Every structure is written in structure tokens, then in C-alpha cells.
Amino acid sequence: MKLDDDGVLGVGVIGAGRIGLVHLEALSSCESAKAVIISNPTVSKAESAAVKYKLDHFTADAHEVITHPDVEAVWICSPSAFHADQIKACAAAGKHVFCEKPIATDLKETVEAINACIAAGVKLMTALQRRFDPNFERVKLAIEREEVGSIVQVKLCSRDPAPPPFEYVQGGGGLFKDMAVHDLDMARFLMASEPVEILAMGSCQIDSSIKVLPGAEAFDTATILMKFANGKDAMIDVCRQAPYGYDQRAEVLGLKGMIHTDNTYPNTARIYTSLFTGNADMPFDFFMSRYKEAYMQETLAFVDALVHDKPAPCSGEDGLVALVMAIAAGRSAEEKRWVAFAEMAGELCSMGDNDACEADVVDSLTGAIDFSKLLSPKMGIVLQKATPTTPVAEKTTSFTTREWLAATCGR
User: Please, which pLDDT band fits residue 390 given cuts at 50, 70 and 90?
Assistant: First the structure.
């Protein structure tokens, strides 16, 4: 089964945890793609997924997914610590990559993974699924159509139903990289402007056990303010627990009006009594239900990009910018101050070979980083896009069951 042979893209999936199953479900509804193999260090999970979704193969080893002859693209749904190495292994094998956020938890590894894919001529998509959610898409459309006029301010709310286990939080990069990164990306996406400064305040209000963890890993609640180059502001609140279900809302105030999204419910039934008026049931309490349509649409979008040789709809570079924003938020919360994104220009430019990089990429009027310029080949950070090449025939990285099991709790 090959795209060139029968028009069906062969897909391998790394990770049979919750997010892996979400993507298997999405792939099962896509006529142009078929999952053929899945891996998980607890092989019984891989086997169960293979049986449920009628995959031909399952394994405990991610290396077998990456090198499988029928696999042309790999969906990486493993814990964050493994993403960068697995992306590079896929690139070395000539396989396109769909990777759950983040690409990596630090800038250097993220750039290395992006460059590995560019050098190999394979596509890399960062899974920031909220861009594909019908609610957020409609807000973006209202802005583009000027239905509410020019933006005055943006508000985003993101609260999970319950905190993840300690083992998931530990080593996961912290609240800003693991959770708020979606909202940071969405704020930039809606604004269509680059961030200038950020102020984040983090605290532990829900799960006291995480207070022993370093940096932003000790936070389960945060408030974020961002200033953008267009002169507008965004406000974000995130929390690991909302006992009433997934609370995921967006609001944009414009000069002509306002648009906002409500939470998503299992049904539209409402109850009216002398004591209560409102929805009969609470909002969805699981991300697999809340973002089912978004996961489906991002899968279809990437498969379409591969089938018709289009750019990835949410690129590795988009993932890098989201990580820069999350790092700045974490720095702000830990140092209790506004952080200008211009402060990070030097750190980013140090990964390239252009001495004039920092002066060139920071806007002298707004102080914003011009990420399109920063990530152009001229700056030497991200490589020039390459023509697709024959897969590199070399041994890829193999990941031990012990390494992965240590990080799989909560996935």
C-alpha cells in the first residue's frame, strides 16, 4: 500500500495512549490514508488498538513503525521527551511527520528536528489542533470578514476538568509549554500579529503535590497578558481543574461588536424549572470528546497536504514560535516581570550564522520579533527548503521500553 500505487497513504502511529487513539479514530475516517502499524512500549495497548482499528501490525518498538516499508508518514503521539529524536529518526528514514505538540521542550532540539525534516525533504506538521476547531475557526473568520470590526482585545480561557497525575506533570515542560501553549498560539493566530511583551503569573491552587517540581512544572493555574505589535492586548487564563467540565472559550471584542464561543456540550437539551434554568448536562469532560472534530480536521488537512504536495497547514516553524511564547511566559512567571520577546532574539540568533541577525529581526518600532525573517534561510537558523530526496538508508534511533514507560503516565 503506497500513495503512488493506490492513492492511499500508509501511516504508522507511535503511541497507543489517549492521544494516539484519538488520531487512530481520525485516520479511520480518512479515505486517503490507512494506519498500518502502531507501537507502544506496553505492547498489549498497541495490540488492543490494532484489533479495534483493524491495523495489520503492532509492536513495542517505535523503530519498527518508522522503518516499516508500507509507512510513508508517521504520527508521533508519544511523550514529549521523545518527540525530537523520533522526528529526526523519521526524517532519516524519509518519512513525513505529524507530531503532537511540542516538537521538543527546548529551542535547540526543536530547530534540529525542523532542520532534519527540511534536509530530508519531508513535511513536518505540529499538531496545534485548536486552529482546526470549528468554534475557533469561526472566530478567526469573523475577524477576517471584519464582522466585529478591528480588534480591540482578545480573551481566552482554558481550564481542564481535572489535573493530570504527578508523573505526567514531572518532566512535561510545565504549565506553559504543556497546556497554555495552545492558548498562546491561538492568541497569535487570532491577532495575526507578533507578540511584543508577555506577563505571566503562575501558582499552585489545585494539586499541592506538584509544588516540589522545578519552575513552571509547579504551577497548575496561571494568568497571562500579552501585548502585540498591532497595539492590541490578549488575556489568557488557564487552570488544570474546572469541576464542571472542559472550559474552552474565546472572546474577541471589536470596534463594531463582539464574538465569543461557548463550551461544547454532549447535547442541546436544556431544563427549565422553578429552581434551575440551563443545560441539562455539563460540558464535555474529556479532550477526546471536546476536540473530536478538530482532531479529524487537522488529520484531513495534513493528509491532503501530503496527497497534493501542499505545505503543512501548521508547520514545524509554527510549533517553534509557540514554544518561544511558552518559554517567555515561563520566564515571566518565575522572574515576576514583563518579558520582552526581543530579549529572546539573541538566544534564537545564536543558533544561526548571521552576525546581523538580531538587529535584522527585531522591529525597531514595536520591539516584536519578525519570525518570518528570523526563520528565513538567510539567518542560518532554519535551512533552505530541500527538494524531496530518496529516504536515507541508515539506522534510526530505537527507544527502550523502560525510557518510554517512565514518561507515559497520563498520556
Answer: very low
Residue 376, C-alpha cell as written in the block: 528565513
Of the candidates 133, 109, 97, the residue with the CA atom closest to the CA atom of residue 12: 97
CA atoms within 13 A on the CB side of 322: 31
What does residue 35 show for φ and ψ, rounded to 5 degrees?
-75, 130
- Three-state SS sequence of the chain: CCHHHHCCEEEEEECCCHHHHHHHHHHHCCCCEEEEEEECCCHHHHHHHHHHCCCCEEECCHHHHHHCCCCCEEEECCCHHHHHHHHHHHHHCCCEEEEECCCCCCHHHHHHHHHHHHHHCCCEEEECHHHHCHHHHHHHHHHHCCCCCCEEEEEEEEECCCCCCHHHHCCCCCHHHHHHHHHHHHHHHHHCCCEEEEEEEEECCCCHHHHHCCHHHHCCEEEEEEEECCCCEEEEEEECCCCCCCEEEEEEEECCCEEECCCCCCCCCEEECCCCEEECCCCCCCHHHHCHHHHHHHHHHHHHHHHCCCCCCCEHHHHHHHHHHHHHHHHHHHHCCCEEHHHHHHHHHCCCCCCCHHHHHECCCCCCECHHHHCCHHHCCCCCCCCCCCCCCCCCCCCCHHHHHCCCCCC
pLDDT tens digit string along 195-215? Answer: 999 999 999 999 999 999 999
Answer whether 322's CB lies under 8 Å from 101's CB: yes
Nearest to 1 by CA among 47, 44, 57: 57
Single pTM value for the model: 0.88
pLDDT of 353: 84
Q: Determine if the peptide bond prior to 102 is cis (ω within 30°).
A: yes
pLDDT in tens, 7-41: 899 999 999 998 999 999 999 989 999 999 999 99
Contact indicator for 261, 249 with CB cutoff of 8 Å:
yes
Strands ordered across the beta sheet of 247-254: 258-260, 247-254, 151-159, 233-239, 221-228, 195-203, 339-340
Cβ distance 216 to 176 under 8 Å? yes
Distance, CA of 357 to CA of 149 (rounded, Å):
36
Mean pLDDT score of the chain: 91
Q: Which percentage of the chain shows pLDDT scores above 90? A: 80
For the chain, percent of residues with pLDDT exceeding 70: 92
